[in-house]
Amino acid sequence: MHLGKVMVVFGTRPEAIKMAPVIKELKKVDDIKTVVVVTAQHREMLDQVLHLFAITPDYDLDLMQRRQDLYSITSGVLQGMQGILEQEKPDLVLVHGDTTTTFAAALAAFYQKIPVGHVEAGLRTHNKYSPFPEEMNRTLTGRLAELHFAPTDQARENLLAESVAGYKIWVTGNTVIDALMETVRADYEFDSKLAGINFNQRLLLVTTHRRENWGDKMRDIYQALLRLVDDFADVEVVFPVHMNPTVRDLATEMLGGRERIHLLEPLDYEPFANLMNRSCLVLTDSGGLQEEAPSLGKPVLVLRDTTERPEAIQAGTVKLTGTSEEHIYRAAHMLLSDTNAYEQMARAINPYGDGKAAIRIVKVIKDFLYVRIGAQI
Ligand code: UD1
Ligand code: UDP
């Protein structure tokens, strides 16, 4: 029995990584037609993931422009989605997380009264401007959504506090753990692109990209890295630099050509996740890394003033350092010099899932489509 059509829409690297397990699971269900739409808010960094997980989009809006702004992404997604939705008439549109693609695609579906399923729903800092614009992207998507897939109990609580009906929320775990478990292997061998890294040294894995950190905050972060490398001769920084030119220009200016600092192109997810597994410490302002590293037993210093992912902080494997040079330097210095402090943080915990989130999400979608057909007969 044909249950209906599900349109999965995403546009950036992390959305693709986290939606890949859901697409794989949806495609196993013969009774559901799955249509994949990429906005390509990211291009190269999205294509890396599509290639790794062998996803061929049915539609590609090819939106990315160099140094794009929020207005062009939002209007591009809205206008691009209009025709695709009119043509395909899906029974459900599935979006992920908190990007501008997420919000604009959910809004586009709402304009045609198509129900929206929100994967990774309910994370909140309760600060409108941090992360910016992601906090509002996620909150507004939550207002539009019909099905809320919350990764944790805390996320469910956040939604309930905003009067989302309990029967519309499912705690599924985060699909990033599904992707990670498929990808990390103890015997993984790195290719020649990483040949310059000395894997016998202690590796600090670094990523930065958040809009609210652009400028002086990012300078402070990079300054702290310089001090750490000066202090510890057995430490190397490995920093696959986001393609955003604002980030790239500053990273190159401050960290380029420095001894034991490796500025790399964005890595494919497979080498990146395995590199995280070999690293000693993760310093990042990324959302996804805060979820992945704890499950690999890697301490994380979060280079942000707020986080919508408090679970690993409560479990003690993640610390929110803020962005001041001194705070980051001191927190990392302590972990690199005090074995006890390090061991206390380096425990594998999994508050974000058990690797079966996608299976749970697809089960709910099947039930939803089944009930919907019943209502139409
Ligand atoms: C976007 C999301 C952010 C998410 C992040 C993940 C918004 C507003 N921001 O931020 O929530 O955490 O992705 O990485 O939705 N670029 C390339 N090639 C790429 C990707 C980006 O050249 O494959 C460059 C382009 O010049 C582009 C710029 O990076 O204009 C910024 O991309 P954009 O998606 O606007 O912002 P991100 O900082 O990547
Ligand atoms: N990632 C990757 N290659 C890299 C850096 C990160 O594949 O060079 C992965 C990482 O494992 C995580 C995701 O990209 O799954 C995080 O993306 P990003 O930090 O850009 O976005 P955020 O999670 O902050 O939205």
From TrEMBL:
> Gene3D superfamilies attached here?
Glycogen Phosphorylase B
Q: Name one Pfam family in it.
A: Epimerase_2
Which enzyme type, at the first EC level? isomerase
Q: What is its EC number?
A: 5.1.3.14
The protein's GO terms of the molecular function aspect are:
UDP-N-acetylglucosamine 2-epimerase activity
Sorted alphabetically, which keywords does the UniProt record give? Isomerase
Domain named UDP-N-acetylglucosamine 2-epimerase: residues = 24-366
Concerning its family, UniProt says:
Belongs to the UDP-N-acetylglucosamine 2-epimerase family.
Cite the NCBIfam families for this sequence. wecB
* Protein's name according to its UniProt entry: UDP-N-acetylglucosamine 2-epimerase (non-hydrolyzing)
* Species the sequence originates in: Syntrophomonas zehnderi OL-4
